[in-house]
């Protein structure tokens, strides 16, 4: 089966502004936010990207939607190579790759009713629909909100409701891929369940390929088929999510999974302590980026970057001294 | 037993709205004993933020405290003048907020901000600086001297939150209020911050009121838990009592919904059906009635009172079953 979206060795690099510091010569003139990422998104499957804030998750999502410049790498959508525009941004068919933003209320126009906001994709893409307002009602019912919501403004919605409107708007033009950036951040567990159930129902109905970006490991375990762990702009481990949860190979993955606090007061958790802090992207460590914090690091790790190692199944990782 | 640091009795807060008073908090009791960590859990909209704002007296202008008392170390905070209240905030009661980027000033260095929060102290600038350094070391920030000269945007999220904690503990407060301090962080940093908070709490012997909807974090950190629903405390007790033997149907549902407790992988996550009731025209009886699967006739007539000794819950079911 060919992938809906096929990403190979994608790089996003931001230039640093000039300023006086650039004259000293000690500082790099650019920062690599996404550093050689490869990824497949398949129809009907959910892929999760996990990693701490600043690891480049959101930038990757933006790049895939053509909202951030790409400096190297190839992206194929349904077998067709996506070309870059004058500003080096990818130019995907935005009707077919939809993005759900992190802040649901902030991404809605505060002066537009929900009816109008939901009709907007049709107007912008001049989609063949007789009545955008009627479509808006259909979308609302699809995400489980009643017609009363059509005339409300974003500030009159709760977090969960705004998220539903975000889902409705992203799915308005029946995309093939939905990229959801932190779809449950700030929601409590019950509403989080509602939003995730809604996404998985719509996925079954529409055969969507979903890319979820999150740092909530508990939801990844339940909803993701594939997962990738991102650290300083790279995927350091990726593959089948069940497999990674049961047998993480990269020490960072292992630390991340062991650190997940359990709601059971009797659970004996022994989190793997990581040394220090995430290094700055401006001063990317040599060799494996994780060696500064890695409990298993040896001299080799600071001099060269480990090649991609294939484990059983589809699990791959970059580490010289992986976990057993 | 020593006096609690914070003792809230029968607190009710209303917001004036076009549709009439919105009863955001109703008859809330909460005790924070000295040196303990108390967790507050509940859905968004359950009144957690209103409660904190009421404690530190930073309620919105349209809010009115209808009744109740907030006693901090023997003083009723509600009767203090704004000046007296100001001198308590950041000194004896301090706060750590959800987003460290917005609680730090982006155009001032960390060092300047850390000296500024010591504005009450008569110490020299050099002494204040030394104290800032010490605090940064205490919260585990590497190379603190260099950090003092940096700006908030130079620091990672975890570092910023640690700076915020260092600033909050600077005056060695008796009570630290932490409003979802780890939601913006990933799991490894979250655990780091929680452990750091525990250590500091022992070291400084302050009480912490910790708000979060991450049940795992609450379980890891807190001694006691208060469960709030739609402006009321529905259950409270020790962490073990509430998390292992929940009595209120809402607490039970909430715990069931946590994907971390579901060991079997599932596509259909459990949810609590229905939504929060409107707090403008309160329904009669139990506030959770409409979403409760076990409700009785009595539940629609009469509001259950909170009962129990150490492990308290407000539910009619507990009274009928002896």
What does this structure look like?
The complex is a heterodimer of chains A (324) and B (322). By secondary structure, chain A is α/β, with parallel strands linked by helices. Chain A has two domains: 1-17 and 28-93 and 197-261 and 270-324, Rossmann fold (3-Layer(aba) Sandwich); 97-174. Chain A is 28% helix and 22% strand. Chain A contains ten helices and twelve strands. Chain A has helices at residues 21-24, 57-64, 114-124, 132-142, 159-171, 189-206, 217-223, 241-246, 251-258, 299-303; strands at 5-15, 30-41, 46-50, 72-77, 80-81, 97-100, 177-181, 209-214, 226-231, 234-240, 308-310, 316-318. In chain A, the strands form two sheets. In chain A, strands 6-7-8-3-9-10-12-11 form an eight-stranded mixed sheet, with helices on both faces. In chain A, strand 7 (177-181), helix 6 and strand 8 form a beta-alpha-beta unit. In chain A, helix 3 crosses helix 4 (132-142) and helix 4 packs across helix 5 (159-171). The longest helix of chain A has 18 residues, at 189-206. The two termini of chain A are 31 Å apart. Chain B is α/β, with parallel strands linked by helices and 322 residues long. Chain B folds into two domains: 6-92 and 171-320, P-loop containing nucleotide triphosphate hydrolases (Rossmann fold, 3-Layer(aba) Sandwich); 104-170. Helices cover 32% and strands 22% of the residues of chain B. Chain B contains twelve helices and eleven strands. Chain B has helices at residues 48-55, 82-88, 100-103, 110-116, 125-138, 144-148, 157-169, 187-204, 215-221, 239-244, 249-257, 316-320; strands spanning 6-17, 20-32, 37-41, 63-72, 75-76, 93-96, 175-179, 207-211, 224-229, 232-238, 312-313. In chain B, the strands form two sheets. A seven-stranded mixed sheet of chain B has the order 6-7-8-3-9-10-11, with helices on both faces. In chain B, strands 2-1-4-5 form a four-stranded antiparallel sheet, covered by helices on one side. In chain B, strand 1 (6-17) and strand 2 (20-32) form a beta hairpin. In chain B, helix 5 crosses helix 7. The longest helix of chain B has 18 residues, at 187-204. The two termini of chain B are 29 Å apart. Chains A and B meet through helix 6 and helix 7 of A and helix 7, helix 8, helix 9, helix 10 and helix 11 of B.
